[in-house]
Amino acid sequence: KNLSKAMGILRVSGPVRWGLRTALLGVALAAAGFGHANAITLDDAVRTAVLTNPDVGVVSNDRRAIDQELRQARALYLPSIDLRYAAGREIVRSRAGGLPGLNHARLFRTEASATLTQLLFAGFSAASEVQRQKARSKSAARRVAETSEFTGLDAVQAFLDVLRQQQLVSIAKNNVGIHESTLSDMKQRLAVGTGS
Residues 45-54: what's their mean pLDDT? Predict the structure, then answer.
């Protein structure tokens, strides 16, 4: 299975890539310095890289937003209801020749309405919009997978670089030990007078 499905997330590029490699190198070297009980595993390194990488977060959030737009497109098939309510004071003035003193009235007026609308046919615009949003959602999912895989691969490369550097340090320590042993032997021979 691909890494993105196993890890559930996303890619590193430019300065972020080097920052990630440096961080993983530091973590692995620190873990190696404290013994094998605290050493980071490849699984942990990849999981941490994918879960904490900002590029993965950005692409994941983009996908969530596109999925919401797909839900909005599907809502075009659903009926919509519009509710309206209004209330307020109203003064009615009349110049008609009615009774004296009754040529105006103060009223409190209210009105309400509800409108139910259902799309019957709009030239396939709703179906086209749903298909467009489905394609965008699928594309966003693949971008998430791609970014996750690249991030995981970068983490694996950094992890392997750490292991290689640890082996080089071990070889260098062994080399120093051999040189110190040779120096000690030479000092003993010089002290006895047999070495040149």
Answer: 93
